[in-house]
Design a protein that fits this description.
The chain has helices at 13-24, 31-39, 43-64, 83-90, 102-111, 122-140, 152-165, 173-182, 187-197, 220-230, 245-255, 279-284, 303-308, 326-337, 349-359, 415-422, 430-446, 452-458, and strands at residues 2-6, 28-30, 71-74, 93-99, 143-146, 206-212, 235-241, 259-262, 276-277, 289-293, 296-300, 318-322, 341-346, 362-365, 376-379, 403-406, 426-428. The protein has 459 residues and is an alpha/beta fold. The strands form three sheets. It has a six-stranded mixed sheet with strand order 7-6-8-10-11-9, sandwiched between helices. The protein has a six-stranded parallel sheet with strand order 14-13-12-15-16-17, sandwiched between helices. The chain has a five-stranded parallel sheet with strand order 2-3-1-4-5, with helices on both faces. Bound molecules: NADP nicotinamide-adenine-dinucleotide phosphate. NADP nicotinamide-adenine-dinucleotide phosphate binds next to helix 13, helix 14 and helix 17.
Protein backbone atom coordinates (compact mmCIF):
# COMPACT_ATOMS: atom_id res chain seq x y z
CA UNK A 1 0.00 0.00 0.00
CA UNK A 2 1.27 3.45 -0.91
CA UNK A 3 0.93 6.06 1.84
CA UNK A 4 0.49 9.65 0.68
CA UNK A 5 0.88 12.66 2.97
CA UNK A 6 -0.79 15.91 1.95
CA UNK A 7 -1.28 19.23 3.66
CA UNK A 8 -0.22 22.85 3.66
CA UNK A 9 3.42 23.92 3.80
CA UNK A 10 4.65 23.61 7.36
CA UNK A 11 2.39 20.73 8.39
CA UNK A 12 5.41 18.41 8.54
CA UNK A 13 4.83 16.19 5.50
CA UNK A 14 8.49 15.75 4.65
CA UNK A 15 9.75 15.25 8.21
CA UNK A 16 6.92 12.88 9.14
CA UNK A 17 7.18 11.13 5.75
CA UNK A 18 10.87 10.33 6.23
CA UNK A 19 10.30 8.98 9.75
CA UNK A 20 7.29 6.93 8.60
CA UNK A 21 9.16 5.52 5.59
CA UNK A 22 12.03 4.44 7.87
CA UNK A 23 9.60 2.80 10.33
CA UNK A 24 7.80 0.93 7.54
CA UNK A 25 10.99 0.11 5.64
CA UNK A 26 9.68 1.82 2.48
CA UNK A 27 11.20 4.30 0.02
CA UNK A 28 10.30 7.97 0.54
CA UNK A 29 9.37 10.25 -2.38
CA UNK A 30 8.86 14.03 -2.11
CA UNK A 31 6.99 15.33 -5.19
CA UNK A 32 8.59 18.82 -4.89
CA UNK A 33 12.05 17.21 -4.89
CA UNK A 34 10.99 15.03 -7.81
CA UNK A 35 10.09 18.16 -9.81
CA UNK A 36 13.36 19.87 -8.87
CA UNK A 37 15.32 16.82 -10.01
CA UNK A 38 13.36 16.56 -13.27
CA UNK A 39 13.76 20.22 -14.25
CA UNK A 40 17.16 20.89 -12.63
CA UNK A 41 15.90 24.04 -10.85
CA UNK A 42 14.70 24.88 -7.34
CA UNK A 43 10.94 25.43 -6.93
CA UNK A 44 11.10 29.18 -6.09
CA UNK A 45 13.05 29.67 -9.33
CA UNK A 46 10.48 27.62 -11.28
CA UNK A 47 7.76 29.89 -9.82
CA UNK A 48 9.71 33.01 -10.79
CA UNK A 49 10.48 31.82 -14.31
CA UNK A 50 7.35 29.88 -15.27
CA UNK A 51 4.72 31.25 -12.90
CA UNK A 52 2.30 29.09 -10.94
CA UNK A 53 0.72 27.69 -14.12
CA UNK A 54 4.09 26.36 -15.33
CA UNK A 55 4.81 24.88 -11.91
CA UNK A 56 1.41 23.15 -11.71
CA UNK A 57 1.97 21.60 -15.15
CA UNK A 58 5.30 20.15 -13.99
CA UNK A 59 3.69 18.98 -10.76
CA UNK A 60 0.92 17.22 -12.67
CA UNK A 61 3.48 15.39 -14.82
CA UNK A 62 5.58 14.43 -11.81
CA UNK A 63 2.58 13.07 -9.88
CA UNK A 64 1.32 11.13 -12.92
CA UNK A 65 4.76 9.49 -13.17
CA UNK A 66 4.95 8.42 -9.49
CA UNK A 67 5.73 4.74 -9.21
CA UNK A 68 2.91 2.56 -7.84
CA UNK A 69 3.67 0.03 -5.12
CA UNK A 70 4.66 0.40 -1.50
CA UNK A 71 6.20 3.77 -0.67
CA UNK A 72 5.62 6.91 1.37
CA UNK A 73 4.92 10.01 -0.74
CA UNK A 74 4.88 13.62 0.42
CA UNK A 75 2.76 15.63 -2.04
CA UNK A 76 3.28 19.36 -2.66
CA UNK A 77 1.02 21.69 -0.65
CA UNK A 78 -1.21 22.70 -3.60
CA UNK A 79 -1.21 19.38 -5.47
CA UNK A 80 -4.67 18.23 -4.42
CA UNK A 81 -6.42 21.30 -5.83
CA UNK A 82 -6.28 19.49 -9.18
CA UNK A 83 -8.69 16.48 -9.27
CA UNK A 84 -6.39 14.74 -11.80
CA UNK A 85 -3.57 14.81 -9.23
CA UNK A 86 -5.99 13.48 -6.61
CA UNK A 87 -6.90 10.58 -8.89
CA UNK A 88 -3.21 9.75 -9.45
CA UNK A 89 -2.24 10.17 -5.79
CA UNK A 90 -5.18 8.11 -4.54
CA UNK A 91 -4.69 5.12 -6.86
CA UNK A 92 -3.78 2.12 -4.66
CA UNK A 93 -3.02 4.50 -1.79
CA UNK A 94 -4.19 5.82 1.54
CA UNK A 95 -4.01 9.60 1.85
CA UNK A 96 -3.32 11.31 5.18
CA UNK A 97 -3.96 15.04 5.52
CA UNK A 98 -1.60 16.62 8.03
CA UNK A 99 -3.16 19.68 9.67
CA UNK A 100 -2.13 22.53 11.96
CA UNK A 101 -3.60 25.92 12.88
CA UNK A 102 -2.86 29.12 10.95
CA UNK A 103 -0.64 30.59 13.66
CA UNK A 104 1.44 27.43 14.00
CA UNK A 105 1.87 27.19 10.22
CA UNK A 106 2.85 30.86 9.90
CA UNK A 107 5.43 30.43 12.66
CA UNK A 108 6.86 27.24 11.11
CA UNK A 109 6.99 28.73 7.58
CA UNK A 110 8.48 31.99 8.92
CA UNK A 111 11.40 29.96 10.30
CA UNK A 112 12.01 28.08 7.03
CA UNK A 113 14.50 29.20 4.39
CA UNK A 114 11.90 28.97 1.57
CA UNK A 115 10.27 32.34 0.94
CA UNK A 116 6.52 32.85 0.55
CA UNK A 117 5.45 31.91 -2.97
CA UNK A 118 3.27 34.97 -3.59
CA UNK A 119 5.67 37.53 -2.11
CA UNK A 120 3.03 38.59 0.48
CA UNK A 121 3.49 38.47 4.28
CA UNK A 122 3.53 34.84 5.43
CA UNK A 123 0.52 35.05 7.82
CA UNK A 124 -1.63 36.66 5.12
CA UNK A 125 -0.65 34.09 2.49
CA UNK A 126 -1.23 31.17 4.89
CA UNK A 127 -4.68 32.38 5.97
CA UNK A 128 -5.96 32.99 2.48
CA UNK A 129 -4.55 29.86 0.86
CA UNK A 130 -5.70 27.65 3.71
CA UNK A 131 -9.30 28.86 3.38
CA UNK A 132 -9.13 28.40 -0.39
CA UNK A 133 -7.62 24.93 -0.25
CA UNK A 134 -9.33 23.43 2.81
CA UNK A 135 -12.26 21.86 0.87
CA UNK A 136 -9.84 20.21 -1.59
CA UNK A 137 -7.64 18.91 1.24
CA UNK A 138 -10.65 17.41 3.04
CA UNK A 139 -12.03 15.75 -0.11
CA UNK A 140 -8.71 14.20 -1.07
CA UNK A 141 -7.89 12.69 2.34
CA UNK A 142 -8.81 9.36 3.86
CA UNK A 143 -7.65 10.46 7.30
CA UNK A 144 -6.92 13.84 8.91
CA UNK A 145 -4.12 13.97 11.48
CA UNK A 146 -3.25 17.02 13.59
CA UNK A 147 0.44 17.88 13.85
CA UNK A 148 -0.34 20.94 16.00
CA UNK A 149 0.99 19.70 19.31
CA UNK A 150 2.48 16.32 18.41
CA UNK A 151 6.10 15.60 17.52
CA UNK A 152 6.83 14.21 14.02
CA UNK A 153 7.63 10.84 15.67
CA UNK A 154 4.23 10.80 17.41
CA UNK A 155 2.45 11.65 14.14
CA UNK A 156 4.31 8.86 12.33
CA UNK A 157 3.31 6.44 15.15
CA UNK A 158 -0.31 7.49 14.81
CA UNK A 159 -0.31 6.88 11.05
CA UNK A 160 1.40 3.53 11.53
CA UNK A 161 -1.34 2.63 14.05
CA UNK A 162 -4.11 3.48 11.56
CA UNK A 163 -2.40 1.41 8.85
CA UNK A 164 -2.18 -1.52 11.27
CA UNK A 165 -5.50 -1.31 13.13
CA UNK A 166 -7.80 0.44 10.63
CA UNK A 167 -9.78 3.65 10.94
CA UNK A 168 -11.98 2.72 13.96
CA UNK A 169 -11.81 5.03 17.00
CA UNK A 170 -9.43 3.32 19.43
CA UNK A 171 -11.50 1.51 22.08
CA UNK A 172 -14.81 2.02 20.23
CA UNK A 173 -14.65 -0.59 17.46
CA UNK A 174 -16.76 -3.13 19.39
CA UNK A 175 -19.58 -0.64 19.97
CA UNK A 176 -19.72 0.18 16.23
CA UNK A 177 -19.61 -3.50 15.29
CA UNK A 178 -22.54 -4.24 17.60
CA UNK A 179 -24.82 -2.15 15.35
CA UNK A 180 -23.46 -3.67 12.12
CA UNK A 181 -24.26 -7.12 13.51
CA UNK A 182 -27.91 -6.14 14.04
CA UNK A 183 -28.40 -4.80 10.48
CA UNK A 184 -30.03 -7.40 8.20
CA UNK A 185 -27.86 -8.26 5.17
CA UNK A 186 -27.10 -11.37 3.16
CA UNK A 187 -24.37 -13.78 4.24
CA UNK A 188 -21.91 -12.83 1.48
CA UNK A 189 -22.09 -9.12 2.30
CA UNK A 190 -21.74 -9.80 6.05
CA UNK A 191 -18.58 -11.82 5.33
CA UNK A 192 -17.07 -8.99 3.23
CA UNK A 193 -17.85 -6.48 5.99
CA UNK A 194 -16.39 -8.74 8.68
CA UNK A 195 -13.11 -9.00 6.77
CA UNK A 196 -12.96 -5.25 6.13
CA UNK A 197 -13.70 -4.38 9.75
CA UNK A 198 -11.34 -6.98 11.21
CA UNK A 199 -8.45 -5.57 9.13
CA UNK A 200 -7.66 -8.78 7.26
CA UNK A 201 -4.63 -8.30 5.02
CA UNK A 202 -5.38 -7.73 1.35
CA UNK A 203 -8.94 -6.42 1.81
CA UNK A 204 -10.12 -2.80 1.67
CA UNK A 205 -9.27 -0.76 4.74
CA UNK A 206 -12.10 1.72 4.58
CA UNK A 207 -15.86 1.60 4.62
CA UNK A 208 -18.54 3.81 3.05
CA UNK A 209 -22.26 3.18 2.92
CA UNK A 210 -25.81 4.32 2.45
CA UNK A 211 -28.06 5.05 5.45
CA UNK A 212 -31.79 4.80 4.78
CA UNK A 213 -34.89 2.86 5.78
CA UNK A 214 -35.39 1.11 3.47
CA UNK A 215 -32.23 1.24 1.35
CA UNK A 216 -31.34 -2.38 0.59
CA UNK A 217 -32.79 -1.90 -2.94
CA UNK A 218 -30.48 1.10 -3.64
CA UNK A 219 -28.32 1.23 -6.78
CA UNK A 220 -25.60 3.06 -4.83
CA UNK A 221 -23.58 0.04 -3.57
CA UNK A 222 -23.14 -1.32 -7.11
CA UNK A 223 -22.08 2.06 -8.52
CA UNK A 224 -19.73 2.95 -5.66
CA UNK A 225 -18.03 -0.45 -5.48
CA UNK A 226 -17.45 -0.31 -9.26
CA UNK A 227 -15.99 3.19 -8.89
CA UNK A 228 -13.74 2.08 -6.03
CA UNK A 229 -12.47 -0.78 -8.21
CA UNK A 230 -12.01 1.52 -11.23
CA UNK A 231 -9.95 4.07 -9.26
CA UNK A 232 -8.21 1.39 -7.15
CA UNK A 233 -9.42 2.88 -3.87
CA UNK A 234 -9.15 0.60 -0.82
CA UNK A 235 -12.84 0.92 0.13
CA UNK A 236 -16.00 -1.14 0.35
CA UNK A 237 -19.53 0.38 0.16
CA UNK A 238 -22.48 -1.25 1.88
CA UNK A 239 -26.19 -0.69 2.61
CA UNK A 240 -26.81 0.19 6.27
CA UNK A 241 -30.59 -0.33 6.45
CA UNK A 242 -31.49 0.58 10.02
CA UNK A 243 -34.44 2.58 11.42
CA UNK A 244 -32.41 4.80 13.79
CA UNK A 245 -30.17 7.33 12.00
CA UNK A 246 -28.57 8.48 15.29
CA UNK A 247 -27.29 4.94 15.86
CA UNK A 248 -25.99 4.68 12.29
CA UNK A 249 -24.08 7.98 12.61
CA UNK A 250 -22.75 6.84 16.01
CA UNK A 251 -21.44 3.62 14.44
CA UNK A 252 -19.98 5.62 11.53
CA UNK A 253 -17.95 7.64 14.06
CA UNK A 254 -16.87 4.57 16.02
CA UNK A 255 -15.83 2.60 12.93
CA UNK A 256 -14.26 5.57 11.11
CA UNK A 257 -16.63 5.25 8.11
CA UNK A 258 -15.37 7.74 5.53
CA UNK A 259 -18.58 8.56 3.63
CA UNK A 260 -22.31 8.03 4.03
CA UNK A 261 -25.02 8.59 1.45
CA UNK A 262 -28.24 9.49 3.28
CA UNK A 263 -31.66 8.72 1.86
CA UNK A 264 -35.36 8.55 2.81
CA UNK A 265 -36.42 9.16 5.56
CA UNK A 266 -33.26 10.61 7.13
CA UNK A 267 -32.16 13.62 5.04
CA UNK A 268 -33.45 16.09 7.66
CA UNK A 269 -33.20 13.86 10.72
CA UNK A 270 -29.46 13.28 10.21
CA UNK A 271 -28.57 16.98 10.55
CA UNK A 272 -28.45 17.30 14.38
CA UNK A 273 -25.99 14.39 14.57
CA UNK A 274 -23.35 16.08 12.40
CA UNK A 275 -20.56 18.47 13.41
CA UNK A 276 -20.80 20.92 10.49
CA UNK A 277 -23.30 21.47 7.69
CA UNK A 278 -22.44 22.97 4.34
CA UNK A 279 -24.30 26.27 3.68
CA UNK A 280 -26.11 24.86 0.61
CA UNK A 281 -27.40 21.85 2.57
CA UNK A 282 -28.50 24.16 5.40
CA UNK A 283 -30.46 26.36 2.99
CA UNK A 284 -32.15 23.35 1.37
CA UNK A 285 -32.78 21.89 4.82
CA UNK A 286 -31.52 18.41 3.96
CA UNK A 287 -28.25 16.45 3.92
CA UNK A 288 -27.72 13.49 1.58
CA UNK A 289 -23.94 13.18 1.97
CA UNK A 290 -21.81 12.83 5.11
CA UNK A 291 -18.01 12.89 4.96
CA UNK A 292 -15.78 12.07 7.92
CA UNK A 293 -12.21 13.28 8.41
CA UNK A 294 -10.31 13.33 11.70
CA UNK A 295 -13.46 12.44 13.67
CA UNK A 296 -15.37 15.46 12.27
CA UNK A 297 -18.58 14.66 10.34
CA UNK A 298 -19.56 17.17 7.64
CA UNK A 299 -22.95 17.22 5.89
CA UNK A 300 -23.55 18.22 2.24
CA UNK A 301 -26.43 18.15 -0.22
CA UNK A 302 -25.72 16.91 -3.74
CA UNK A 303 -29.36 16.29 -4.78
CA UNK A 304 -29.64 19.86 -6.04
CA UNK A 305 -26.59 19.37 -8.31
CA UNK A 306 -28.27 16.23 -9.67
CA UNK A 307 -31.36 18.28 -10.54
CA UNK A 308 -29.51 21.36 -11.82
CA UNK A 309 -27.05 19.67 -14.19
CA UNK A 310 -29.57 18.12 -16.67
CA UNK A 311 -31.51 21.43 -17.01
CA UNK A 312 -28.60 23.91 -17.07
CA UNK A 313 -29.50 24.88 -20.63
CA UNK A 314 -32.92 26.14 -19.46
CA UNK A 315 -31.65 29.11 -17.41
CA UNK A 316 -34.33 31.78 -16.90
CA UNK A 317 -37.21 29.40 -17.75
CA UNK A 318 -40.62 29.26 -16.10
CA UNK A 319 -40.70 26.08 -13.98
CA UNK A 320 -43.22 24.09 -11.95
CA UNK A 321 -42.10 21.78 -9.16
CA UNK A 322 -44.64 19.13 -8.19
CA UNK A 323 -44.22 18.18 -4.52
CA UNK A 324 -43.06 19.94 -1.38
CA UNK A 325 -40.80 17.43 0.39
CA UNK A 326 -37.00 17.16 0.56
CA UNK A 327 -36.46 16.48 -3.17
CA UNK A 328 -38.72 19.44 -4.01
CA UNK A 329 -36.65 21.74 -1.76
CA UNK A 330 -33.48 20.65 -3.59
CA UNK A 331 -35.28 21.22 -6.91
CA UNK A 332 -36.39 24.74 -5.98
CA UNK A 333 -32.86 25.60 -4.82
CA UNK A 334 -31.38 24.21 -8.07
CA UNK A 335 -33.85 25.98 -10.37
CA UNK A 336 -33.51 29.29 -8.51
CA UNK A 337 -29.73 29.00 -8.96
CA UNK A 338 -30.49 29.01 -12.72
CA UNK A 339 -32.66 32.15 -12.36
CA UNK A 340 -35.86 30.28 -13.18
CA UNK A 341 -39.24 31.54 -12.09
CA UNK A 342 -40.54 28.71 -9.92
CA UNK A 343 -44.01 27.67 -8.75
CA UNK A 344 -44.41 24.85 -6.23
CA UNK A 345 -47.62 22.82 -6.57
CA UNK A 346 -48.50 20.17 -4.01
CA UNK A 347 -51.31 17.85 -2.91
CA UNK A 348 -51.24 19.49 0.53
CA UNK A 349 -51.20 23.14 -0.48
CA UNK A 350 -50.00 24.44 2.88
CA UNK A 351 -46.78 22.41 2.47
CA UNK A 352 -46.27 24.08 -0.94
CA UNK A 353 -46.86 27.52 0.59
CA UNK A 354 -44.37 26.81 3.40
CA UNK A 355 -41.64 25.61 0.98
CA UNK A 356 -42.25 28.47 -1.47
CA UNK A 357 -42.01 31.05 1.33
CA UNK A 358 -38.54 29.76 2.29
CA UNK A 359 -37.22 30.46 -1.21
CA UNK A 360 -39.42 33.43 -2.19
CA UNK A 361 -41.19 31.57 -5.05
CA UNK A 362 -44.87 31.00 -5.92
CA UNK A 363 -47.14 28.20 -4.59
CA UNK A 364 -50.48 26.63 -5.33
CA UNK A 365 -52.58 23.46 -5.44
CA UNK A 366 -51.95 20.75 -8.07
CA UNK A 367 -55.17 21.82 -9.81
CA UNK A 368 -53.62 25.17 -10.88
CA UNK A 369 -51.10 23.48 -13.20
CA UNK A 370 -53.05 24.28 -16.41
CA UNK A 371 -52.95 28.05 -15.65
CA UNK A 372 -49.16 28.22 -15.68
CA UNK A 373 -47.90 26.85 -19.08
CA UNK A 374 -44.34 26.29 -17.79
CA UNK A 375 -41.24 25.52 -19.88
CA UNK A 376 -40.10 22.92 -17.33
CA UNK A 377 -42.00 20.50 -15.07
CA UNK A 378 -40.15 18.65 -12.29
CA UNK A 379 -41.96 15.81 -10.54
CA UNK A 380 -40.53 15.72 -7.00
CA UNK A 381 -43.31 13.56 -5.54
CA UNK A 382 -43.14 9.79 -5.12
CA UNK A 383 -46.10 9.36 -7.50
CA UNK A 384 -45.22 6.91 -10.28
CA UNK A 385 -42.59 5.06 -8.24
CA UNK A 386 -42.85 1.26 -8.50
CA UNK A 387 -45.34 -0.31 -7.88
CA UNK A 388 -47.47 2.87 -8.31
CA UNK A 389 -48.60 3.23 -11.93
CA UNK A 390 -50.21 6.67 -11.68
CA UNK A 391 -49.23 10.14 -12.91
CA UNK A 392 -50.15 13.54 -11.46
CA UNK A 393 -50.47 15.01 -14.99
CA UNK A 394 -52.54 13.79 -17.97
CA UNK A 395 -51.74 14.17 -21.68
CA UNK A 396 -54.07 17.19 -21.89
CA UNK A 397 -51.97 19.06 -19.27
CA UNK A 398 -48.79 18.92 -21.36
CA UNK A 399 -47.59 20.95 -24.35
CA UNK A 400 -44.89 19.72 -26.71
CA UNK A 401 -42.61 22.70 -25.92
CA UNK A 402 -42.34 21.55 -22.29
CA UNK A 403 -39.43 19.68 -20.73
CA UNK A 404 -40.60 17.08 -18.20
CA UNK A 405 -38.10 15.85 -15.58
CA UNK A 406 -39.29 13.04 -13.30
CA UNK A 407 -37.04 12.58 -10.26
CA UNK A 408 -38.52 9.11 -9.67
CA UNK A 409 -36.09 6.58 -11.21
CA UNK A 410 -37.82 3.24 -10.64
CA UNK A 411 -39.06 2.43 -13.26
CA UNK A 412 -36.65 4.24 -15.65
CA UNK A 413 -39.62 5.43 -17.72
CA UNK A 414 -42.37 6.44 -15.29
CA UNK A 415 -46.05 6.82 -16.28
CA UNK A 416 -45.53 10.64 -16.35
CA UNK A 417 -42.54 10.32 -18.71
CA UNK A 418 -44.47 7.93 -20.98
CA UNK A 419 -47.32 10.48 -21.24
CA UNK A 420 -44.83 13.33 -21.82
CA UNK A 421 -43.03 11.37 -24.53
CA UNK A 422 -46.34 10.76 -26.35
CA UNK A 423 -47.16 14.48 -26.04
CA UNK A 424 -43.87 15.28 -27.84
CA UNK A 425 -42.17 16.84 -24.79
CA UNK A 426 -38.44 16.62 -24.07
CA UNK A 427 -38.12 14.14 -21.20
CA UNK A 428 -35.44 13.73 -18.54
CA UNK A 429 -35.42 10.53 -16.46
CA UNK A 430 -34.71 10.31 -12.72
CA UNK A 431 -31.56 8.28 -13.46
CA UNK A 432 -30.04 11.58 -14.67
CA UNK A 433 -30.46 13.04 -11.20
CA UNK A 434 -29.11 9.85 -9.65
CA UNK A 435 -25.99 9.90 -11.83
CA UNK A 436 -25.16 13.57 -11.27
CA UNK A 437 -25.85 13.59 -7.52
CA UNK A 438 -23.74 10.43 -7.16
CA UNK A 439 -20.83 11.96 -9.14
CA UNK A 440 -20.92 15.00 -6.83
CA UNK A 441 -21.15 12.76 -3.77
CA UNK A 442 -18.14 10.73 -4.93
CA UNK A 443 -16.27 14.02 -5.42
CA UNK A 444 -17.00 15.08 -1.80
CA UNK A 445 -15.85 11.70 -0.44
CA UNK A 446 -12.76 11.18 -2.64
CA UNK A 447 -11.86 14.43 -4.46
CA UNK A 448 -12.08 12.56 -7.79
CA UNK A 449 -14.20 13.94 -10.66
CA UNK A 450 -15.88 10.94 -12.31
CA UNK A 451 -16.50 11.61 -16.02
CA UNK A 452 -20.19 11.55 -16.88
CA UNK A 453 -19.76 8.76 -19.45
CA UNK A 454 -18.04 6.50 -16.92
CA UNK A 455 -20.78 7.03 -14.31
CA UNK A 456 -23.41 6.18 -16.93
CA UNK A 457 -21.52 3.06 -17.97
CA UNK A 458 -21.17 1.85 -14.37
CA UNK A 459 -24.77 2.45 -13.16
P1 LIG B 1 -40.98 13.30 0.68
O1 LIG B 1 -40.20 14.30 1.45
O2 LIG B 1 -41.65 12.17 1.39
O3 LIG B 1 -42.09 14.11 -0.19
C1 LIG B 1 -43.05 13.43 -0.93
C2 LIG B 1 -43.89 14.43 -1.73
O4 LIG B 1 -44.74 13.66 -2.56
C3 LIG B 1 -44.78 15.33 -0.89
O5 LIG B 1 -44.84 16.59 -1.48
C4 LIG B 1 -46.13 14.62 -0.97
O6 LIG B 1 -47.24 15.52 -0.86
C5 LIG B 1 -46.10 14.08 -2.37
N1 LIG B 1 -46.96 12.92 -2.54
C6 LIG B 1 -46.81 11.68 -2.01
N2 LIG B 1 -47.82 10.88 -2.44
C7 LIG B 1 -48.64 11.63 -3.23
C8 LIG B 1 -49.82 11.36 -3.97
N3 LIG B 1 -50.38 10.14 -3.96
N4 LIG B 1 -50.35 12.36 -4.68
C9 LIG B 1 -49.81 13.60 -4.71
N5 LIG B 1 -48.67 13.90 -4.04
C10 LIG B 1 -48.09 12.93 -3.31
O7 LIG B 1 -40.05 12.59 -0.41
P2 LIG B 1 -38.73 13.20 -1.11
O8 LIG B 1 -37.54 12.85 -0.32
O9 LIG B 1 -38.99 14.61 -1.41
O10 LIG B 1 -38.67 12.32 -2.44
C11 LIG B 1 -39.64 12.45 -3.45
C12 LIG B 1 -39.28 11.52 -4.61
O11 LIG B 1 -38.09 12.01 -5.24
C13 LIG B 1 -38.92 10.10 -4.16
O12 LIG B 1 -40.04 9.27 -4.23
C14 LIG B 1 -37.87 9.65 -5.13
O13 LIG B 1 -38.45 8.83 -6.11
C15 LIG B 1 -37.38 10.92 -5.80
N6 LIG B 1 -35.93 11.10 -5.58
C16 LIG B 1 -35.11 10.76 -6.60
C17 LIG B 1 -33.73 10.89 -6.48
C18 LIG B 1 -32.85 10.53 -7.64
O14 LIG B 1 -31.63 10.42 -7.46
N7 LIG B 1 -33.39 10.41 -8.82
C19 LIG B 1 -33.18 11.39 -5.28
C20 LIG B 1 -34.06 11.74 -4.25
C21 LIG B 1 -35.43 11.59 -4.40
P3 LIG B 1 -47.89 15.89 0.58
O15 LIG B 1 -47.11 17.09 1.08
O16 LIG B 1 -49.28 16.22 0.23
O17 LIG B 1 -47.75 14.68 1.45
Amino acid sequence: MRVVLTGFRGTGKTTVGKILAAKLGLPFVDTDRLIEDRVGRKIPRVFREEGEIGFRRMEREAIASLPGGDSVVSAGGGAVIDPVNVENLRRGSLVFLLQAGEETLSARIGMSDRPSLTGRPVAEEVGELLRERRPAYLRAADFCVSTESATPEEVADLIEGILRDGPAMPGHREAGLALIEKIPMDGGEREVLASVLSRKAGVPLGLCGIAGYPCSHSKSPVLWNRLFARYELPYHYTALEWPNIGEVVGAARELGIRGLSVTIPFKEKVMPFLDTIDPEAREIGAVNTVVQCGGVLRGYNTDWVGIRTPVEDLGGAQAVVLGAGGAAAAAVYALRSLNMEVTVLNRTEENAVRLAARFGVHAGPLSSFRDIHPDLVVNATSVGMDPDRSSLLAAGDLEKEMTVFDLVYTPPETPLLAIARSAGCRIIAGTEMFIHQAREQFFHVTGIRVPEGLARELV
